[in-house]
Amino acid sequence: MSLSRRGFSTVTGLRNGGLHMFLPNETQYVFKGERLTPQENIRAIPSKPPLQPQVKKFYNDITRPDQTGDVIKRFTLTDVITTCLASNSLVDVVKGDGGAGIELYFTPVVTKWMNDFNNLVLPLEDISSTEPPTFYRYKAIEDLQLEVPPEGITSQWLNEIISSNKIVHNSTLILQGKLLPMEATKLPTFELLMFWLLSHETIGGLNNNITVLMSFIEQHFDLIPLASLETMVDCLVHYIHGLEIVDKGTFEHFNTIVQHALVINASLYTKMSPIMADTLAFEYIRGNNVQAARQVLISLVQDAKLAPTPSTVDAFLKTCFAEDVSFLKPVFFHRNSMTPDVILFLITHRVHSVSDLNKLVELLESYHGKETLNQYQYQLFECLCRLPITEVHLTQMIKRLVIENSVKLNDLVIELIDNQYSSLNSHQSLSKIL
């Protein structure tokens, strides 16, 4: 008998007839528990379990090393051992065939965390080791034989100069890419004129020249090519830094120009001369723009791996809040950056416990010599007495400075120590220790 007569298709190999399904959908195959209305189905869905189970935690979340805000600590092997053997650390005595041993559960975590913490202290180079900026005198402008008016430059004089010498036309051709670089250097352009004016001897002598020139650069900023932005900012910073007094209007023009340059080139701080970037941070501080100064310093420390000049760091610490200086931690560990202002700032604002003070003493001892400890002995003991301490803490600090570092205590410190022992109701004295 053929397949077609048995009810099979000779083409597809399937039985002819109605639709065949592997899963039955007749109501007779529906279980009793499935015969629910949509509303009953929704009510049958169990509620979500709480995302935060109400279970008591037996541990504390570990703070990331870069979120501690510390600026004076660098851990050693002694710190690792002390932490692992602290009173609230899990230590277990394991007995075996070879005898009893101690298992320190937190040692791997502590070691990794402290290594990451210490790696936050980046090795820095002195900014003075970098190449100083070079400012050129441009022959294309000098050939024009321009004479600055004795009464000072004005917007009218500047507009006459750029229109009579096709300066705007030349700059536009360069921006449009219609001139080769070799051709462009032979033509007077807007940025070359500004470079020449900023280096002119008579420009800085008159106060009205400053505001007029800054305002003119701001108005024609779109004529400055991208390749000249860093040089333009370098020249402006060098020019502003040479002024004894900068009025508010001039600084606002200066700040606007730099911010425009940042919009066009976000990596401006790393592209410009490091010495000029440090000077820019100083000028920002002088103009009360602390946040902008902070961004420049962050770029120098974290991106360029350079230590800002001590004068810039001192000026920044005098105007900022204590919690804003954590990015300067590599600077504080840099050998040539610990000035008297920095030391007093750290003692006053960054020591909150005996552990902090011990680490600060360790920093001063290892990087800046015992002479520094002798010079700031009163400030160190005064800071210690402000903290919640015991007789042991005071005695340990005396031994560390006097016995280990040969610090000769002066009369003020001796009186301070005696008064502190008395306030602690202690019978201890310097004569018993030394």
Tell me the layout of helices and strands.
Layout: H1 38-44, H2 77-84, E1 91-96, E2 99-104, H3 107-118, E3 125-126, H4 139-142, H5 155-164, H6 167-175, H7 181-184, H8 190-198, H9 207-219, H10 229-241, H11 248-264, H12 268-271, H13 274-286, H14 290-303, E4 306-307, H15 310-319, H16 329-332, H17 340-349, H18 354-375, H19 377-386, H20 391-404, H21 411-423, H22 430-433
Helix pairs in contact: 2-3, 8-10, 9-11, 10-11, 10-13, 13-14, 13-15, 18-19, 19-21
Strand order in the sheet with the most strands: 1-2
- SSE class: mainly alpha
Order of helices and strands: HHEEHEHHHHHHHHHHHEHHHHHHHH
Taking the sheet with the most strands, its summary is:
2 strands, antiparallel
Count of strand segments = 4
| Helix fraction by DSSP (H/I, runs of at least 4) | 40-55%
Average pLDDT confidence is 84
Shape: flat
